[in-house]
Amino acid sequence: xxxxxxxxxxxxxxxxxxxxxxxxxxxxxxxxxxxxxxxxxxxxxxxxxxxxxxxxxxxxxxxxxxxxxxxxxxxxxxxxxxxxxxxxxxxxxxxxxxxxxxxxxxxxxxxxxxxxxxxxxxxxxxxxxxxxxxxxxxxxxxxxxxxxxxxxxxxxxxxxxxxxxxxxxxxxxxxxxxxxxxxxxxxxxxxxxxxxxxxxxxxxxxxxxxxxxxxxxxxxxxxxx
Length: 225
Hints:
- By secondary structure, this protein is an alpha+beta fold.
- The protein has five helices and 15 strands.
């Protein structure tokens, strides 16, 4: 399957794909082909079928929309592991925070490997990829425990009440589930089989990432159902 990138290098400058343009991969230096059709967002692809980063995910409109919230020179930042294998971060801020946007299904072992490699990382997950995830998550919130706080409501959800929770709790870092609205659900803490998180405005999440400021934590008082 062809692999998509937003940027190529030409004359030591990052450029976006345009018809007939030429460029090289900022990670491996291989020649890239500009793909400028009428269906997918314009992008670059390696000439072969294999991307130089084994973790790379084809970019969707959803990826591009999230990336557009940040400066282009923070996007698609390459780094190598101790064995020399190349990995390209979706976003890496000047503060050293990596943000990975995940649309397709990701195996648990790869999620853990990528988290361990980047270390200072948060995940943003497309929670609308599967048709049933949104309704399942709404039910999990309804069946969970709601905690009043001075800043709003914190949800305490059972690990096995939603597929998204089972898939993403083991990474051990902040994970934002994007259900397509103006807020994400921020998975913030895991304690045994209970998951703690809350609805949080996307604009404020983007501000925290951009400014390098601390993300809100789970602080709550008496639960109510």
